Automatic annotation (TrEMBL):
Organism (species): Sphingobacterium daejeonense
Xref: Pfam families: LptD_2 (PF19838)
Domain (LPS-assembly protein LptD central) ranges: 207-683
Name of the featured protein: LPS assembly protein LptD
InterPro entries per record: LptD, LptD_2
Superkingdom of this protein's organism: Bacteria
């Protein structure tokens, strides 16, 4: 903390609070008022004075005053008022009152008391080679360059040092009188926690402090005073001990949390090693490292390992479980390497890593219910003036509930921007029809494995990877036809390269024949192509009849129809499909690329007619807030209501596809967003197998069968809350290289959890979402179609009890499972330079509470008091 005194004349934060200030008794000279002009010379604007410096050279002193400048000739004293400035060599001074005494070579600067009784216009001074300093008043001998300042305030990494008086001698040593180190930036901290320093001397390499004692809530605790202190000044970070916190857990026993050691290696990276130990045997260790290269890149990675006691000792459920988790985040500044990007977000671990670790050191019960982990490492490069774009990505997706794991190592993509091969740069006039033909190219490559997390690190897993490369060449042409129609035609060629293919065969087992699928290694290629031609247009309908506040309604219909053709690539001449008779004597045709990462060429000839209809309906409603009486606002009623399907002329049965539909709308002045989608099947199904049969449902008395339907809506009764949250997230991201670990963790939380952001400027917010899904699934046990419905609701919000008290809540309910999701109530109190937070999970498996009081200053993040009680059952 005393190291911060070394920058007393650097990085000073000006004191702009309008507090009543009494000028120190040492400043006995009164500020003259403009009552008489005897012996004074009235000067406005800028003046210059020529003086000789120590070397005998003439130096220019620039003097400026916005209000007036009075020269008291008889005393050889100059008075400057309102916005006064003095510049002399490397010294600059600005204040609302400056007095220059030419007899003693002393400048005196101070603020003034305005008509409201506020002390304004405090001096701001720049010493040679130093940063600006804000003070209450200043005496400066411009010959000896020795300053004496009163009411100094400086900021040190979020902490503040204030001193009643500071003197600086010719040896660049500073003497401090009645100093205070605190977390509050007010001249008189109202809730400060600080160190009172009676006297101190600051040199270039050391700090010597006289009697010092602790002050809490303006109460001096002098029995904890130290009579003398000597502290070396360090210009770099230093390693040190990280003090733990103590507590108790209902299942794990007494705890010593986050005991550790901080390691700093250089200006670019540092680490901290922490450990947590419980009296009943559970322990956890983690190491977190951060790195930063200014203007180039920054990031952090962490490794966490723990051994957790489960169950109750003496029962069958008692045991020990070991988990690990690795995270890595990296971001690169765009300007560091234009045209190239690299980023990483890795989160990988064992299945129960979230559940166990979330309730130990970094207590976060919301994380305990997370059931997925995902990672992504991405590299990108742009070539040929932005016409060619290459990306490579490695990713992983892990389901913690089932243990399913998908790894892509890697996925690559190369895309070439579409171009007009028959057009010319020297063309004169409009494009001819053939010059409108566009061609593109894209390449994708993938190496993927899908397995269980417990089987990943086996030697045999290397053979479970599937890989492939896909090339795609689209050729298209778009023209306007008969003024009102848009004509589009396209040809699409796709080729796939695989290193594996499959073969089905029968083996003779003791109990009969058994079907076996073999995977053969070796290069194979598969290709397909298709042709499509279509027309589309727009139809507008307008209703100008007034109905209540509705002035008019507009309906926009966008119908389109296309004809598409694709050959039958299961034909033996392509050699992509094989015939096979299984152990039950059932004949079928299968693709040798059926496990390919990019699929297989389609079986069956397709000559179809595709159709779709898109609808948008909006109304113009009179705006009562418009005092002119002519204002209207557009209100969407239905947006993107689309029906689409396809009719395959070449198919021998089931020629009509399912009819899919989707749409959205907004209600209550766009506070509620509604989305829906689904599909209709025009055919009936077999009562014994559940498969579609070639019989239209209308013959059974139904126009079509609704096979699935999804409805969701989210709402916010205060949209400004979401807007403000987005703006603050953008602001935090812009300062990412300078974030503390706690701030970086907070940014990650509020990016995904709206309720993790505390904004006292928004008095209230209430938001929520509802989702419902309906599906028809055939049950072989009951030999009939069954309806399956999922329905959940989630609500979150907050409100200000007072301008400094904020209450947040979030909860949810599953109507099908008939149980509530984890509910949490959070209370925040803004203590100006401190924060207080209370978290409470009132019921459920993660029932608990925690109370934390901590300093806001980033350098004092470990200065906190935490009380926690958990009833989590492990």
């Amino acid at each position: 903390m005393f190291v911060g005194l070394s920058v007393l004349h650097a990085q000073v934060r000006p004191n702009t609070n309008n507090q009543n200030v009494t000028i120190d008794s040492l400043q006995r000279d009164t500020i003259p008022t403009d009552t008489s002009k005897n012996n004074f010379k009235d000067v406005n604007g800028q003046d210059t004075v020529h003086m000789n410096n120590e070397g005998g050279l003439e130096t220019v002193v620039t003097i400026t005053a916005n209000d007036s400048s009075w020269n008291e000739v008889s005393k050889n004293i100059l008075h400057l008022y309102k916005g006064a400035k003095v510049k002399y060599e490397g010294f600059e001074l600005a204040a609302d009152y400056i007095r220059l005494d030419r007899n003693t070579n002393v400048l005196f600067a101070t603020g003034v008391i305005d008509h409201n009784g506020k002390y304004v216009g405090r001096p701001v001074v720049i010493m040679p080679g130093e940063s600006p300093i804000a003070v209450d008043s200043l005496l400066y001998n411009y010959k000896t360059q020795v300053p004496k300042t009163f009411g100094v305030m400086t900021e040190v990494d979020g902490g503040y040092i204030q001193a009643r008086e500071v003197r600086k001698n010719i040896y660049d040593e500073m003497s401090l009188y009645q100093g205070l180190y605190s977390t509050c930036n007010l001249p008189y901290p109202h809730t400060h926690f600080g160190i009172q320093i009676t006297k101190g001397v600051i040199t270039q390499k050391q700090i010597i402090a006289g009697p010092s004692y602790l002050v809490v809530e303006n109460i001096p605790i002098k029995f904890l005073a130290i009579p003398f202190g000597f502290f070396p000044k360090q210009d770099k970070k230093s390693s040190g001990f990280l003090f733990p916190s103590f507590g108790e857990d209902a299942a794990r026993g007494f705890a010593m949390r986050d005991l550790g050691w901080y390691l700093t290696f250089n200006d670019y990276w540092d680490s901290e090693i922490r450990g947590t130990l419980y009296s009943k045997g559970t322990w956890e260790a983690n190491i977190r490292t951060q790195y930063l290269v200014n203007y180039k890149f920054n990031g952090n990675f962490a490794l966490q390992y723990g051994s957790y006691v489960q169950g109750v000792e003496g029962t069958d459920s008692f045991g020990r479980e070991k988990n690990f988790r690795f995270t890595w985040n990296h971001s690169q500044r765009q300007e560091a390497n234009p045209g190239t990007s690299f980023s990483a977000s890795v989160n990988f671990g064992s299945r129960n890593a979230y559940r166990n670790a979330a309730t130990t050191g970094q207590y976060n019960p919301m994380e305990a219910i997370n059931n997925r982990m995902g990672s992504s490492i991405a590299y990108g490069k742009v070539f040929a003036d932005g016409k060619v774009n290459f990306t490579a990505n490695m990713s992983h997706d892990q389901n913690l509930s089932t243990g399913d794991l998908t790894l892509d190592l890697p996925t690559i993509s190369l895309n070439v921007a579409t171009f007009n091969p028959f057009d010319s740069k020297d063309r004169i006039g409009e494009q001819k029809w053939y010059q409108r033909i566009t061609v593109g190219y894209s390449l994708q490559g993938q190496n993927r494995i899908q397995t269980k997390d417990s089987l990943l690190f086996r030697k045999e897993s290397i053979r479970d990877f599937t890989n492939g490369i896909q090339h795609n060449i689209p050729v298209s042409l778009s023209l306007n036809v008969m003024k009102y129609f848009q004509f589009n035609t396209s040809f699409n060629y796709t080729e796939r390269w695989y290193l594996q293919s499959v073969r089905n065969r029968l083996t003779n087992e003791p109990y009969g024949f058994k079907a076996v699928k073999d995977t053969l290694q070796g290069f194979k290629r598969a290709y397909d192509y298709s042709v499509s031609t279509g027309l589309s247009t727009k139809i507008y309908g307008q209703m100008n009849r007034k109905i209540g506040k509705v002035e008019a309604m507009r309906h926009t219909i966008t119908p389109s129809i296309n004809v598409n053709y694709r050959p039958d690539f299961s034909d033996p001449r392509y050699n992509f499909y094989r015939d096979f008779t299984d152990e039950n004597g059932v004949y079928k045709r299968y693709s040798i690329f059926e496990n390919g990462v990019y699929g297989t060429p389609g079986a069956g000839k397709s000559f179809g007619i595709g159709f779709s209809v898109d609808n948008n309906l909006e109304a113009k409603i009179r705006n009562d807030k418009d005092t002119t009486g002519t204002g209207v606002k557009k209100v969407p009623i239905i947006q993107g209501l689309t029906f689409s399907g396809n009719y395959n002329v070449a198919a021998d049965s089931l020629k009509l596809s399912q009819i899919s539909f989707s749409g959205r709308t907004a209600l209550f002045d766009k506070k509620v967003n509604v989305n829906f989608n689904g599909s209709f099947d025009p055919y009936s199904y077999d009562r014994y197998t559940g498969t579609r049969i070639d019989r239209f449902a209308i013959k059974d008395g139904k126009l079509a069968r609704l096979t699935n339907f999804g409805l969701s809506f989210d709402y916010s009764l205060n949209p400004k809350a979401n807007e403000n949250r987005s703006e603050n997230i953008d602001s935090l991201r812009s300062s990412m290289p300078n974030l503390t670990p706690e701030q970086a963790q907070a940014l990650a939380r509020i990016s995904t959890d709206p309720n993790a952001f505390v904004d006292f400027n928004i008095p209230w917010n209430l938001a929520g979402s509802f989702s419902m899904n309906y599906n028809q699934v055939f049950s072989r046990e009951k030999m009939q179609m069954e309806t399956r419905i999922t329905s959940t609701v989630n609500v979150h919000g907050d409100f200000n009890v007072t301008p400094k008290w904020k209450v947040q809540f979030n909860t949810g309910y599953d109507f099908v499972q008939k149980e509530a999701s984890m509910s949490q109530i959070s209370i925040y109190r803004d203590l100006h330079c401190w924060d207080m937070s209370v978290g409470w999970v009132p019921f459920g498996r993660y029932k608990s509470y925690n109370i934390t009081i901590r300093a806001k200053a980033s350098i004092l993040q470990d200065l906190k008091l935490t009380k926690r009680q958990s009833h989590f059952t492990y």
